[in-house]
Amino acid sequence: MSSQETAPPEQPVLREMRWWDIDPVLALERELFPDDAWSRGMFWSELAHARGPEATHRYVAAYTGDRLVGYAGLATAGGTGDVQTIAVARDQWGSGLGSRLLTDLLEHATAFDCTEVMLEVRVDNTRAQALYARFGFEPIGFRRGYYQPGNVDALVMRLSDPSVNPAARDHLDAKIEAARLSGRTVTVWLLDGTTTGYLAAVLAVLLLFGVVYEALPTAKWGRTLGKKLFGLRVQDIEEHDVPAFGAALRRWLVYSVSGLLVVGVAGVLWCLFDRPWRQCWHDKAARTFVAR
């Protein structure tokens, strides 16, 4: 007996919401939020602030073919973003679409130079609260009777740094959800072509920072700004002069990598017992020592 694999579901396409999306948006709005659905005029007012050089809003719509399956909106003012709405069709719940919509809003919050993002969510909507918590939102208070006419309280949540890119996490969520929907046992690797790219970008920035702030000043003057404030110098253990650039770079790499591996503290404390040069691990690797 042969079996036939089910084709993976089509991924919704996200694009900017426009005025011609309002009719399908209203239909989904009334289906999901029958008691407190937004009016046509409210959506028109929001979209009026979402285009042009002075735009302060972002509204995004998700379509599968010609069918609207989700939408979301963000308003910004004075460095603060406010998630106005996120809606996902019921048959798309658990598909990762909510994560994709929220990711889009947070990316635009960063583009709008927001330093924090706020939102309100019904206290009985635990599914949405779990989504926001995964993105780093934290509860900070309540608004009593915020949702009318049901007189339901709102939980107020805040994300303190929307510039932290959630795209890798959203990518992994989508992979996990796709594996679940396939009905088969699938291994989901944390490192793949997408997440490896994000990791490489982070490491490249870290390396560039180390070269500019640590390795170059150490090789040229024997000190960074911090060491200058404390009257300290890094010297080559044999020449008693500033170390070569290669040694300075090796010194910083050992220091930073050991710090990332949470053994850096032991490496620094090692100098308390080392004799006669009181070298930390990164100084031993570079054959340097710190002197006044």
Total helical segments: 10
Strand count, sense and barrel status of the largest sheet are: 7 strands, mixed
**Global structural class:** alpha+beta
Q: What is the C-alpha radius of gyration, as a whole number of Å?
A: 26 Å
Order of helices and strands: EHHEEEHEHEEHHHEHHHE
Tell me, rounded to a whole number, the average pLDDT: 84
The total of beta strands comes to 9
Strand order of the largest sheet: 1-2-3-4-5-7-6
Q: In angstroms, what separates the terminal alpha carbons?
A: 81 Å
Point out poorly predicted stretches.
1-7
Helix content: 40-55%
Strand content bin: 15-25%
* Net shape: elongated
Give a brief rundown of this model:
The chain has 292 residues and is an alpha+beta fold. The chain is 41% helix and 22% strand. The N terminus is likely disordered.
What is the topological layout?
Elements: E1 13-16, H1 22-32, H2 40-47, E2 57-64, E3 67-77, E4 80-88, H3 97-111, E5 116-122, H4 126-134, E6 138-147, E7 152-159, H5 167-182, H6 193-221, H7 225-229, E8 233-236, H8 245-260, H9 264-269, H10 281-286, E9 288-291
Parallel strand pairs: 4-5
Antiparallel strand pairs: 1-2, 2-3, 3-4, 5-7, 6-7, 8-9
Helix pairs in contact: 3-5, 6-8
Q: What attributes does this structure have?
A:
292 residues; alpha+beta; seven-stranded mixed beta sheet; two-stranded antiparallel sheet; 10 helices; 41% helix; 22% strand; elongated; disordered N terminus
